[in-house]
Amino acid sequence: QVRLEESGGGLVQDGGSLSISCTASQSLRFYSMGWFRQAPGKEREFVAGISASGLSPYVIDSVKGRFTISRDNAKNTAYLQLNHLKPEDTAIYFCAADQRDHSYLSGEFQIWGQGTQVTVSS
Question: Which of 11, 30, 33, 56 is a Cys-bridge partner for 78, taking CB atoms 3.0 to 4.6 Å apart?
């Protein structure tokens, strides 16, 4: 079973940037990858997904133009670049993996990391 570990979260000011990473215990080359977030008192939200090949990144409309998902299969790592951050982006960010091809679009994932906290101060 693949294990995922997020890193790179932290505290940043309004308008700032962060890059968060998700490193796997084994090869991700056949896995769709996704990023989710969960703010206090809210449900977990699918934010971005990327196909196994990395050719089809997807982000939700509310972060389009600010967040970028990418991956490096040689490093067993997926990334989420967070730019122009807003206080409402404050949440725990989780990465996820799944061997189903459509997961990066459907948001249906079976393997989860523990999450990394991103806090944006106003």
Answer: 33
Q: Residue 105: in which H helix or E strand, if any?
A: helix 103-106
DSSP secondary-structure letter at 25? S
The burial class, CB within 10 Å (0-12 / 13-18 / 19+), for 55 is exposed
3-state secondary structure (DSSP) of residue 14: coil
Amino acid residing at 41: G
Q: What is the pLDDT of residues 34-49, one digit of tens each?
A: 999 999 999 999 999 9
47-90: per-residue pLDDT in tens? 999 999 998 899 999 999 999 999 999 999 999 999 999 999 99
Residues 58 and 40: their CA atoms lie apart, in Å, by: 24
